[in-house]
Design a protein that fits this description.
By secondary structure, the chain is an all-alpha fold. It has a domain of 29 residues. It has two helices and no strands.
Length: 52
Amino acid sequence: MERNAARDRRTTRALRKDGWRVLVIWECQTLSWEEDRLRDKIAAFLEEEVDS
């Protein structure tokens, strides 16, 4: 798990350096009881694009 998180941080930095916006969604966030939180997270991320 720790190595995955470190890899994600490196990848995220590289993508942002190239001008990409990044939203990381972990598999555990896709569980049914997390559905509302995930929907809110995605909506907030997409709204940032509209506001930018």
